[in-house]
Amino acid sequence: AQSVTQPDIHITVSEGASLELRCNYSYGATPYLFWYVQSPGQGLQLLLKYFSGDTLVQGIKGFEAEFKRSQSSFNLRKPSVHWSDAAEYFCAVGGIGTASKLTFGTGTRLQVTL
Amino acid sequence: GAVVSQHPSRVICKSGTSVKIECRSLDFQATTMFWYRQFPKQSLMLMATSNEGSKATYEQGVEKDKFLINHASLTLSTLTVTSAHPEDSSFYICSARDWASGGTDTQYFGPGTRLTVL
After folding, report:
1. What digits encode the pLDDT tens for the residues A58-82?
2. Residue pair B3/B27 in contact by the 8 Å Cβ criterion
């Protein structure tokens, strides 16, 4: 069975500081990995995704993530956080094909202090 | 980019009534859409997979007679909560699968619908 672990429930960083959100996954085949962001009362917005190729993936809003197969990880990073980045971040894993579904982690709530 | 809309964004209804939520893919065709439920400060729970032109596939524990799903076109899926009760109050989010060129497979999410059953 596939699963995603986001070990940090809540993280607080100062504006301008760097950020790393952790994500570990379990998947029986080649994983497709995603990071989504959710603002309060809103749906999910796709930040970036990894399917194949370069293991360092660039996304929107200055985010990037690195796929490390040996560690089963897909951590999200941003060099300098902005106050508007405060939100809930979800990591997800899925496969390819019409029967594939996404499995989400429990989310990490990011708070940004000024 | 791929845009998914949901309507209504918020609905309040009396116990025992039915509520319909629409999910539309605005700039792409989606043969597959998904319906999720999210409890406060929790992750998303997949309820069902909606396939255009065929019956939805429900996850274990989800009552298919209570949560009716219809996917009549390539851009529209509806979720009807029948005989709603206060315990059905939740945030419902849909997503639509976009098969981009090259075979990549990405779900794009709607803004969600907040259902409150009195």
Report:
1. 999 999 999 999 999 999 999 999 9
2. yes
CA angle in degrees (0–180, nearest 5) for B66-B69-B70? 145
DSSP line for B84-99: --GGG-EEEEEEEEEE
CB atoms A101 and B49 under 8 Å: yes
Q: State the CB neighbour count (10 A cutoff) for residue B83.
A: 13
Cβ–Cβ < 8 Å for B34, B91? no
Is A59 an interface residue toward B (CB < 8 Å)? Answer: no
Model confidence over A14-28: pLDDT tens digits? 999 999 999 999 988
Q: Is residue A100 within 8 angstroms of chain B, CB to CB?
A: yes
Q: Which amino acid is at A21?
A: L
Cβ of A43 within 8 Å of Cβ of B32? The answer is no
Q: E strands within B14-75?
A: 19-25, 32-38, 44-51, 57-58, 67-73
pLDDT digits (tens, 9 = 90+) for B13-54: 999 999 999 999 998 888 899 999 998 888 899 999 998 888
Distance (Å, whole) CA B62 – CA A24: 27
Q: Is A60 on the interface with B (CB under 8 A)?
A: no
Distance in angstroms (rounded) separating the CA atoms of residues B111 and B23: 10
Chain B residues within an 8 Å CB radius of A90: 43-44
Contact status of A40 with chain B (Cβ, < 8 Å): no
